[in-house]
Design goal:
Layout lengths: L1 E4 L1 H15 L3 H16 L9 E2 L8 E6 L2 E7 L3 E9 L7 H6 L1
């Protein structure tokens, strides 16, 4: 199964990386490398994440990559990474609405 990233998810990863790197550059690189490895594993284990409590719909799932949540949707042929949100940030339903 193919893993694709939404524009929003890519932007959120850049923001998170920059925030972490401002204090700890090496930790930011490690965080990003581990995030990418975890997300790419969804090509084989797409449904391993748990359902997103704020959505509750089956195709939407999330992985924890402390302290961030990776929210994604499982389609018939691909996994779409919708957003990456800090766990302390309030849920923004518009990110999913934009997704479709």
């Amino acid at each position: 199964m193919k893993v694709v990233w939404s524009v929003v998810a890519e932007q959120r990863v850049i923001e998170a990386f920059e925030a972490i790197a401002s204090d700890r550059p090496a930790a930011a690189v490690r965080w990003l490398r581990e995030l990418l490895t975890k997300v790419e594993s969804l090509d084989r284990f797409a449904k391993r994440g748990r359902k997103v409590p704020e959505i509750g719909k089956s195709p939407y799932r999330q992985l924890q990559h402390y302290p961030y949540r990776v929210v994604y949707r499982v389609d018939a042929t691909q996994v779409v990474v919708i957003t990456v949100r800090h766990s302390r940030r309030a849920w923004d339903p518009s990110e999913v609405v934009r997704d479709g």
